[in-house]
Specification:
single chain, alpha/beta, Na+/H+ antiporter like fold, Rossmann fold, two-stranded antiparallel sheet, 13 strands, 52% helix, 11% strand
């Protein structure tokens, strides 16, 4: 009997699973090239997985960015642009074009896109955990804790009550599961989504922003805990083996304990081994990147959702420098810029708003969403009002707690994959994310106008304060050199028993590796969890305390540390000055010189912060240009007194500079000179009220000069800006400190021609001239701006 021939192999492309002894599957990954015409392989260029995937990524990325550029002008969040990009590329819009979906987004080509988007979401969840500080829950205060817990428990109780009623409703059993799942997701709050909203609306450093972050953090952790317990109970009720529930609980608890016992001490050891100011070793970053995927495997096999593993791991990793900041620096760009938006856009690809069959159940879905929103909204609103939050703040906070983003989108997507949601339900829920996110941004932006947060109606400046009243000054510092310059200025500000000075020192630290900005009050014994930040703040604190010890009965110092993103640091400065009723904010200049007079630092970031403070400050401001490090022989004088001069031309800012200089002149250790630049042809159309105030201020200084020998008054007649510049340049070598006003009238004769050459217009013509990088004299300059009062 002849041997029978072996069975023919399966056709190319057949997936494994047949009953034969072997199977064959051809996976076409790499293309031979766009121009290669192989007659044996008629597959088109986009029939290969890699070229198709790369083209899909390019299309999604370009469309997402274009939509975001257009929609951010309307203050729409990024998640709206990402979802709309997916919807446009899906069957709702471009999918209606024949062959578009089959060419660019075929069903068999979405496997890799799906996998890549989930990997991106895993790492995005991990980064969210890294940026969160769970210790903040312990110090968030009763108000945030009460609102956060109530925002979870009350909607959860409503959900439980409605779930019992659904069991006796006319809705089919399959539909009931969908409604229950919608309720269970709606009561969740997401810290990363709220943080993103606050950043986009530029209110993350406001009092409302800090309350929202603390409240959402409490709510997020509580809702995650409740959700995990609920999942374990659900496993027990849905199976005939209750032991599975016990197994899941034990495995989950063991995973949490192992994560804390292993990762936390290892992270602490890595931080201890890392030199101050240096990033952690790359090998540990690689280990953490691998461990993220390992936690996904573990959590997915213990019975809870796979995203909880990376999130928990991120919570265990200490936030801030050096570890958290290094992880964020290495991973955040590609995660936030590509893989995170990819997941949301991929969810939008599955949305079909054209084919809706069961309109009655679509209405049920929107009613469910509305009930969930309203129950949570009024819970947060009423609880906030009970906690003495103002009505506008409470309404804004309720919207923030209800906003949705990629976290809620992931839960909807998982339920669609598990077939709890059908295509219609998923499409409606995705649309609800767009509506909720857009509405939250619009209403919170309308209710909370940050540009008027520090509007002042009360005069808080040096000109309107008496010489014997307490002078409240806020001194901002980024580095120790800023403190040395501020101390010198405070020393000559005449602190004495009859004229005390209160200094509110603010150390500004850039927020890196975490999402929550902090304002630390060191009088209350508060500290930051980062040892590096504490060490730097302590060094600056010691320098300010030495000033307080030097003037024991005439000066007090209160020290604060603000850890924030640079684009929001001006809010920390303005809010603290507003709360402490300060008269004057002292800002360090963004340029630094070495001992040879060479420019060694020019920070665009610090310049931007100073400009923002000048625009929004609730009191008067001074930008201190310090050159004390420059070593150059000064001409020998009759005394070793500190020489201070004020250049006066008139106006509110010049009066503020003169008022501060007049206070300095009370010290006999200061030689004070008032240089008034008078135009040869005075403008008779000047503001009469300003002229009266200028005359009164000058008169008080002349009277004081008759009583004190250390005051000199001099007038110089000038015809234009060129003559004024000659006088100002001559003063650079003669004085240690020069005070000038920032703003003057456009038609001021003494400044004609100078405004055309301004390099730093935020300092005004004279300030710009005295801040020139090529000045080699150790002369410091204080550019003053009087508080801009709001009209009632």
């Amino acid at each position: 009997m002849e041997n029978s021939a072996p069975p023919a192999p399966p056709p190319p492309g057949q997936l494994p699973g047949a009953i034969e002894d072997y199977c064959r599957a051809d996976i076409h990954v790499h293309s031979r090239g766009f121009w290669d015409n192989d007659p044996t392989d008629p597959r088109p260029f986009l029939g290969y997985s890699l070229p198709l995937l790369l083209l899909q990524l390019c299309i999604i990325f370009v469309l997402t960015q274009l939509l975001h550029l257009l929609m951010k002008r309307a203050r729409m969040p990024r998640v709206v642009s990402e979802l709309l990009a997916g919807i446009i590329l899906g069957p709702t819009v471009l999918g209606q074009i024949p062959t578009f979906t089959e060419t660019f987004f075929p069903a068999e080509g979405q496997t890799y896109l799906d996998l890549l988007s989930k990997i991106g979401f895993i790492y995005a969840t991990f980064m969210c955990g890294v940026k969160m500080d769970p210790k903040m829950v312990l110090k968030c205060g009763k108000k945030a804790f009460t609102i956060g817990v109530t925002a979870v428990m009350v909607p959860f109780a409503v959900f439980t009550k409605i779930s019992k009623g659904l069991d006796h409703s006319e809705i089919s059993r399959y539909r009931r599961l969908s409604v229950k799942a919608i309720f269970s997701i709606q009561f969740l709050s997401s810290f990363p989504v709220t943080a993103s909203l606050l950043v986009d609306l530029k209110i993350i450093n406001s009092e409302l922003g800090r309350l929202a972050l603390a409240t959402t953090l409490v709510s997020d952790l509580v809702s995650n805990g409740v959700s995990t317990v609920f999942s374990i109970i659900k496993i027990a009720t849905m199976t005939t083996m209750p032991v599975l529930s016990v197994h899941s609980l034990v495995m989950t608890t063991a995973f949490i304990l192992i994560t804390f016992v292993v990762v936390r001490p290892l992270s602490a050891r890595v931080i201890k081994m890392t030199p101050e100011g240096r990033p952690v070793d790359t090998s540990f970053v690689i280990f953490m990147t691998f461990f993220v995927l390992f936690t996904v495997v573990v959590t997915d096999n213990v019975g809870i959702s796979y995203q909880y593993g990376p999130f928990l791991l991120g919570l265990v990793v200490p936030d801030g420098p050096p570890l958290g900041s290094t992880l964020v620096d290495k991973l955040d760009t590609i995660i936030s810029g590509l893989f995170g938006p990819l997941f949301v856009a991929y969810c939008g690809l599955r949305v079909n708003l054209i084919e809706l069959y069961d309109l009655e159940f679509v209405a049920v879905i929107w009613v469910t969403i509305a009930l969930s929103f309203l129950s949570k909204y009024f819970t947060v609103l009423l609880t906030s009002l009970a906690c003495n939050v103002p009505l506008k703040g409470a309404a804004s906070l309720a919207f923030m707690m209800n906003t949705q983003g990629f976290i809620q989108m992931s839960f909807y997507f998982n339920n669609a994959v598990n077939q709890t949601f059908d295509a219609e339900t998923f499409s409606m829920l995705t649309s609800s994310v767009i509506v909720t996110a857009a509405a939250s941004y619009i209403f919170v932006g309308f209710l909370h106008d940050y540009s008027r947060t520090y509007a002042g109606y009360r005069k808080r400046n040096i000109e309107n304060s008496s010489l014997t009243s307490e002078l409240r000054i806020m001194s901002c510092a980024y580095r120790p050199d800023d403190v040395l310059a501020a101390k010198k200025l405070l020393d000559v500000s005449f602190p004495c028993k009859g004229s005390p000075i209160s200094v509110y020192a603010l150390h500004l630290v850039e927020l890196v590796g975490q999402a929550t900005p902090l304002l630390i009050d060191h009088q209350l014994g508060q500290k930051h969890s980062s040892q590096v930040s504490n060490a730097r703040s302590q060094k600056i604190l010691d320098m300010f305390q030495s000033f307080e010890m030097q003037h024991l009965e005439s000066a007090t110092v209160q020290f604060f540390t603000a850890i924030s993103m640079p684009k929001f640091m001006h809010h920390d400065i303005c809010s603290l000055a507003f709360d402490k009723l300060t008269f004057f904010i002292m800002l360090p200049f963004h340029r630094r010189w070495n001992q040879q007079g060479r420019l060694i630092s020019d920070s665009t970031m610090l310049r931007t912060i100073n400009c923002n403070v000048l625009d929004m400050a609730p009191c008067s401001i001074g930008v201190l240009i310090d050159r004390h490090k420059i070593r150059k022989k000064m001409p020998a004088g009759p005394s070793a007194a500190y020489r201070v001069a004020v250049i006066f031309m008139g106006g509110s800012d010049d009066r503020e500079a003169l008022a501060y200089g007049r206070r300095m002149s009370m010290s006999l250790e200061v030689e004070f000179s008032l240089i008034r630049l008078v135009p040869l042809n005075p403008d008779m159309a000047e503001n009469q009220w300003d002229t009266v105030l200028d005359a009164e201020m000058l008169k008080s200084v002349r009277v004081l000069g008759q009583q004190q020998d250390n005051i000199v008054y001099r007038e110089e007649s000038v015809s234009d800006g060129a003559e004024s510049a000659l006088i100002v340049h001559a003063m650079e070598e003669a004085f240690d400190l020069i005070l000038v006003g920032r703003r003057h009238k456009d038609n001021t004769p003494q400044l004609s021609g100078l405004t055309e050459w301004n390099d730093l217009p935020e300092l005004g013509p004279l300030g710009d001239m005295l801040a020139a990088a090529d000045i080699n004299f150790p002369v410091s300059v204080l550019v003053c701006q009087q508080q801009p009062l709001q009209q009632k």
